[in-house]
Amino acid sequence: MTSTLGIAVIGTGRMGTDHVRRIGRTVGGARVVAVADPDGDRVKEAVAGLEGVSAHTDAAAAMAAPGVGAVLIASPGPAHEEALLHALALELPVLCEKPLTPDPAGALRVLEAELRLGRKLVQVGFMRRFDAEYEGLRGLLDAGGIGRPLFLHCRHRNAASPSFFTNDMLISDSVVHEVDAARWLLGQEITAVTVLSPAPSAAAPQGLSDPRFVLLETSGGAIVDVEIFVNCGFGYQVQCEAVGEAGSARIGDGHAMVVQTRGRWGGEIAQDFLTRFADAYDRQVRRWVAAAARGRIDGPDVWDGYAAAAVSEAGLAAARSGTRTPVELVERPALYH
Fold first, then answer.
1. Could you give the 3-state DSSP secondary structure of residue 244?
2. Which strands, in side-by-side order, build the sheet including 325-326?
3. Percent of the chain at pLDDT above 70?
4. CA-to-CA dists, residue 277 to 231, 251, 270, angstroms
């Protein structure tokens, strides 16, 4: 391994392109050496102006490019499993954007492949774990600062949903972030999911049941509630309040600066996740690069990706049936304890 880690980026949509930019400008000790996407024109656009970067329409070809020492997967979820299994066959450290795979069966196949290697090489891109506010809340809970946690009250709002957004994506693409954050903050597994749906907002596209209210039960007896509202109209907002036996703590108010002028006061609301979590994405990739250079990971692992997929599957079933749905998990292998 050279002092500069060569990375193959798979996928050149919004996230992949942002990671190419990030590695080139804000992450030390690494550089992009190969990029792949089935859309050849989009690959060329993503690597424009970058020297020494090979462009590919096949993920395996990009991973095989000279100088590749790690892989960042930012392709659509259904393409993740094949890319992950190929990277593991090459024993390359991976940062994979969520979801690990769209379903728990696929996640288990990745888990089994990693178990055969006997070491963890895949990190899942749940970037909230790297956000300073989330880290602060986790530290407070770990230290018992508000006593035993009883509730997490979560709000996840987007100004507007993209044209391709579906009811399933409300759970599998959006609430999945709260699923991972809750598991990490509480140190507990999620055991059951209930999904409630009010009358859709007038701003919701035809056929989209937005907003929704999701209840998560945990193995430690805590309750997590999530308001998911992807057409709120005013901006991007992620908030979390932890209520314990001896106090409460809230993050995500976004009061970095409050302006008072002309008889009014207020501040700005971020309009998308790349703005709100820009620092978290930077910190995530920096820490992954440092770990990957040593053949390791430093963040959510394959078990976390599998657990999130299993909860999402239960959530989708709960949304369709309107009933409380248990989460089924396999026994946790020793590698992931």
1. strand
2. 247-251, 237-244, 149-157, 223-229, 212-218, 190-196, 325-326
3. 98
4. 19, 13, 10
Q: Are 266 and 254 in contact (CB under 8 A)?
A: no
Label the pairing between strands 190-196 and 54-56.
unpaired
Dump pLDDT digits (tens) for 82-106: 999 999 999 999 999 999 999 999 9
pLDDT of 259 reads 73
DSSP 3-state assignment of 188? Answer: coil
Of the listed ranges 3-17, 54-68, 87-101, 260-274, the least confidently predicted one is 260-274
To the nearest 10°, report the CA torsion of 88, 90, 92, 95: -40
42-56: pLDDT as tens digits: 999 988 888 899 999
Beta strand pairing status for 212-218 and 223-229? antiparallel
Instruction: Write down the pLDDT at residue 1.
Output: 43
- The answer to whether residues 106 and 310 touch, using CB atoms and an 8 Å cutoff, is no
> In whole angstroms, how far apart are CA 65 and each of 56, 143, 328?
9, 46, 40
| Per-residue confidence band for 269, with pLDDT thresholds at 50, 70 and 90 | confident
Residues 16, 83: Cα–Cα separation, whole Å = 14
Contact 106, 84 (CB under 8 A): no
Distance CA 250, CA 237 (A): 13
Q: Provide the H-helix boundaries in 102-223.
A: 104-117, 132-142, 167-169, 176-186
Q: Strand 122-125 to strand 70-73: parallel, antiparallel, or no bridges (unpaired)?
A: unpaired
Report strand pairing: 247-251 vs 94-97.
unpaired
The reply to whether omega before 76 is within 30° of 0 (cis) is no
CA gap 23, 32 in Å, rounded: 7
